[in-house]
Design goal:
Elements lengths: L2 E7 L16 E2 L2 E2 H10 L6 E6 L17 E5 L4 H9 L7 E4 L9 H9 L8 E6 L4 E4 L5 E5 L5 E10 H13 L7 H7 L5 E4 L10 H14 L1
Parallel strand pairs: 1-4, 1-6, 4-5, 7-11
Antiparallel strand pairs: 2-3, 6-10, 7-10, 8-9
Helix pairs in contact: 2-4, 4-5
The chain binds cytidine-5'-monophosphate (C5P).
Length: 225
Amino acid sequence: QQIIAIVPAAGIGSRMGATLPKQYLALNEQTILGHTLDCLLSHPSIEKVVVALSPVDDYFAELPQAVHPKLEAVIGGKERADSVLAGLQIADAGAWVLVHDAARPCLTHADIDKLIASSSAFPQGAILAAPVRDTMKRTNAEGVITATVCREQLWHALTPQFFPVHSLKKNLTDALAAGALITDEASAMEWAGIMPAVVSGRADNIKVTHPDDLQLASLFLKSHI
Ligand code: C5P
């Protein structure tokens, strides 16, 4: 089984309010994207890591990872799904792909292993996810609670998300053409009626979205050593 990774990194991270795109912010003597790529590039089962970059990216070439022999860069697209599709264009149809957010630098090899191992039980694909811990509320438009949502069987969808290349490529293409709301790879599969499984992963595999998340990610990375 050939396994590749695709890292959509073409976003501008406007929610961070920084001048740099968030994947290039400093984190423990590196960049966020540098940590993310190191984890994937050093995994022995991953043959190739494809990173999708903005057409106006000024920073990637400066990273030490840019010249790694396992790394290939492509130009991403307008939305995250377009960036993933750009990466899929250079993937073998018979391979499996791990799609992983550039902004999740705290991923571990143990979680990658767990996800890869799930493919024998779940040939349709699977995603890393973390069970919801808090009580969940639904509100109306005024912010008043209308219901408590049962948290059993509710999960935070994380990445990587692991699928056969041919299947993800077809379903992402079709779902985008149909105008479906696609916020992760699993949602494109679900749109096509293919239901991926969840594999319970570490809750510290956070997506750095807001400035406070950087401090958390820094602590998590130090705790992994
Ligand atoms: O904005 P958000 O945090 O949801 O982005 C998730 C990931 O998708 C980030 O790693 C971002 O760089 C990437 N992305 C992309 N192409 C876009 C938009 C976002 O590769 N057009």
